[in-house]
Structures are given as C-alpha cells and as structure tokens.
Amino acid sequence: MHKYGTAAVNDRGHLEIGGVDVVEAAAQFGTPLYLYDVALIRERARGFKQTFDKLGVTAQVAYASKAFASVAMMQLAEQEELSLDVVSGGELYTAQKAGFPAERIHFHGNNKSREELEMAFDAGIGCIVVDNFLELDMIGEISEARGQAMNILLRITPGIEAHTHDYILTGQEDSKFGFDLNNGQAEEALTIALKKPFVHVLGLHCHIGSQIFETTGFILAAEKIIGKLADWHNRLSFESEVLNLGGGFGIRYTAEDDPLEPAAYVEEIIRKVQTETKKCGLKMPEIWIEPGRSLVGDAGITIYETGSIKDVPNVRKYLAVDGGMSDNIRPALYEAKYEAVLANRVNDPVEETVSIAGKCCESGDMLIWDLPLPKANTGDLLAMFCTGAYGYSMANNYNRIPRPPVVFAEKGEAKLVIRRETFDDLIKLDLPLGLPQTN
Ligand code: LLP
To answer: Per the database record, which ranges form the Orn/DAP/Arg decarboxylase 2 N-terminal domain (predicted)?
Structure first.
C-alpha cells in the first residue's frame, strides 16, 4: 500500500486514517463513506504557505473549494489561514455560512449572473476574478450604482497548453474561460476596467489546467504574462499588484503518476516570476495560487462494502460495491485511475485481479479496472484512495442513490461533517401532482 498522510495499518490488519480504524468508522457511519485525513490537509496547506514565507514573497494561497466544498472544509481552510476560491453563489453561500472572512474570498466563473455579482458586493468579498466583457460591464454598473469599490483580477488565457487530460485544459486559446492574451482581448478588457471609477484592477489571473505534473506550463505562462505586463507598464502605466497563477498541481492517484512535491511547483514559479519581473524592471507582484486537488485530493478515501461478485470465466471477475459513479464520477467521465485495498484485511496477500463495479444502472459505471486484491468476499470493505478532490463535489443522485456522508479523521477522532442523505432528502424538492402551483 502506498503511504498517504497518516494512513497506516493497525495490528488488526485494518486500515487506519488519522488514527481512526476504518472498519470501525464504517460500522459507525455506514458505507459508502468519505473519510478525510485532516492532518494531511493541514500539512499540504502549511507546505504551500511556508514556501512563500521561506522565499519572502507576499502571497495568498486560496483553496479552490470546487474540489470539495462544505462548511467544515471551509472552516478548516480558515483555520489554516488560507484564502478561498468560490465559483458560484452556492459556494459563496457555503463560505458565508462557514463564517469565512469575506476579504479573503475570490469569486471565479465564466458566466456569473447579476444576482451572484450582487451577492459578492453584499458580502464585500476580497476580489472578483473577471472572466468576460459582460461581467466587466455588470461589475461597473453595480459598483457605480452602489458607490462601492471592488477589486478585480482579469482572467486571461495565455495560450499555453498544459500537459494533461483534454477535458480539463483551460489555458489554451480555444477555451471558454478568460480574455485572450494574444488577440488583444485582454488589453481591451484592461483598458475598459481601468476607466471604471469604482473598479480597482489588482492584477491578472491565469489557470493553465489541472492535474499537471511539470512546472513547464506555469513557467511559460509566467514568462508570457510578465512580458505583456512590461508592455502594459510602458504603454498604459499599469502595474500589476497581484499575479494569480491558478491551481492545477498534480497528485499521485496511482503508481503511474509522478507529481512534484506541492512546494516544489511553487518554488520554481516564484523564482521565475522574480527573475522575469527584475529583468523587465517591474515590481515583484504578490503571488496568489489556487490549489484544490493538491490540498484535499489524497487526503480523502472512500470506503465501500463489497456486494455481488460476478465471475465470467477466462474473461473478468466483477466485484460490485455499494456506491459508484454517483459518489465518484471521475472514472466514467475522465477514465480516471485509482488504487484500492481491502480495508479490513490490508495485510492479506494479493491473490487475484478483479474489476470494481459501481451499482448504477450503466455499464460505464466501473470504478477500477484490473485491481490486484486478496480474494474478496461479499461484505469486505474496499478503501479507494485519493478521492478527496472532485469526489463529493461532483457526486450526484443518479438512480436516486443518496450521497454518502463525509467524516473528518484527526488524532483518533472521527467527526461527521456532512451527514448521509436520506430518501426523504431525495424527494424534498419533489411536488406531487394535484398540488396548487406556487412556483
Ligand atoms: N483555479 C481555477 C480557475 C480552476 O478552474 C481550477 C480547477 C482550480 C483553480 C483548481 O484546480 P486544481 O488545483 O484542483 O487542479 N473536475 C476535474 C477538475 C476540474 C478542475 C476545474 N478547475 C477533475 O475531477 O479532475
């Protein structure tokens, strides 16, 4: 078993996370269950922050809450003095309910509604990351109507392709996100923004992709952006106080993945920005980053109970679990790969290769193909690693399967932070025929 954070095997041969016996947690909270190693999230957060401190760079590390958004998670981000990236009214609302300091909230999104923007003004958030001309106009109007200033970053697409899965490329020219740097739209947006009396342009934002293993993409993006900033400094007297380089730092899902330590990405990026700004005679800007996956991804595991077993002789053995694409859509959506162990028998020798099937009515609902495991029986516990990012946050109710609970494990204590959905939760929005219509 690969070593993840506090993951360990206790003397009963059970997997332990944050000092919590996974078999006991499954008995207490039921399965499927998401279990987070809180110490690992804290370690990752501190790792990023300490790298900036070590290099004496003013920074904000904003947790990209789309990776896993909940009140408790946002409170944990606050405890670790992170900032917060939200991308919708719903994430902003969750942050408010978590008591997250508004001035450290950054609001993203390629189609924010007027209502969402008004909500951001009401909350007094730290900054809006502006994605398009419509939004820029709306922010201008709202800020003038209210006489309320707003900080913005302009999200630009630098035309750099990050080496990753096609679905999650966002930094290239042909993208729905941001203002293009090459075709002049970014400059047009800056010129417009600089004329708006209540809008303060803090700087630029770019996010080149997700699950990136190399620093090359970040370095190229930084180089290109700083070149443009030097040009804008000369021609428009604009100086960027902030450079936000987004998230995207890759993590190890399986032995095939070979990411850098999170801090290593940051260190190289900072050094590049330092040399490039110096070369161009610019002030060193604050560096902001927005890690999501690399803060919570490998801190989360999903515990399933094994159920039906279908052996197709000489073809494949299917081992079904009590969850699937409803709690983790990534294998079906991205062909994402995961590792797993039998949490109640971690030390048992590997005896066979099985494929882990979900319980949804869809052939594509397979969680892991060809997983080496001890001989599994119905009623074993399967722990699937690295489901902490984009697992719960992309969970759904396909087949009306209730979403599993989330438990935080730390120092031997298991704390329920999202309760299991009930069947009543599933029908709470349903209106039976025959009721008077009220909208
Ligand atoms: N900042 C921006 C502007 C983003 O669009 C994203 C992710 C992040 C930060 C955080 O990226 P991270 O550090 O988590 O890679 N659902 C996909 C990932 C989509 C990522 C979208 N944007 C998945 O499950 O792999």
So the answer is: 40-296
The residue nearest atom 8 of ligand 1, judged by CA position, is 247
Q: Model confidence over 266-289: pLDDT tens digits?
A: 999 999 999 999 999 999 999 999
Residue in 163, 290, 334 to alter for ligand 1 test, most ligand atoms within 8 A of Cβ: 290
Active site residue 206: no
Out of 156-165, 200-209, 256-265, which region has the weakest mean confidence (pLDDT)? 156-165
3-state secondary structure the chain: CCCCCCCEECCCCCEEECCEEHHHHHHHHCCCEEEEEHHHHHHHHHHHHHHHHHCCCCEEEEEEHHHCCCHHHHHHHHHCCCEEEECCHHHHHHHHHCCCCHHHEEECCCCCCHHHHHHHHHHCCCEEEECCHHHHHHHHHHHHHHCCCEEEEEEEECCCCCCCCHHHECCCCCCCCCEECCCCHHHHHHHHHHCCCCEEEEEEECCCECCECCCHHHHHHHHHHHHHHHHHHHHHCCCCCEEECCCCECCCCCCCCCCCCHHHHHHHHHHHHHHHHHHHCCCCCEEEECCCHHHHHHHEEEEEEEEEEEEECCCEEEEEECCCCCCCCHHHHHCCCCCEEECCCCCCCCCEEEEEECCCCCCCCEEEEEEEECCCCCCCEEEECCCCCCCHHHCCCHHHCCCCCEEEEECCEEEEEECCCCHHHHHCCCCCCCCCCCC
pLDDT, tens digit (0-9, with 9 covering 90-100), for 130-154: 999 999 999 999 999 999 999 999 9
C-beta of 330 in contact with ligand 1 (< 6 A): yes
CATH superfamily placement of domain 8-37+299-427: Lyase, Ornithine Decarboxylase; Chain A, domain 1 (2.40.37.10)
**Ligand 1 within 6 A of CB of 106:** no
259 is in an annotated binding site: no
pTM value?
0.97
CATH match of 108-291 with 3.20.20.10: yes
Cβ of 207 closer than 6 Å to ligand 1, yes or no, is yes
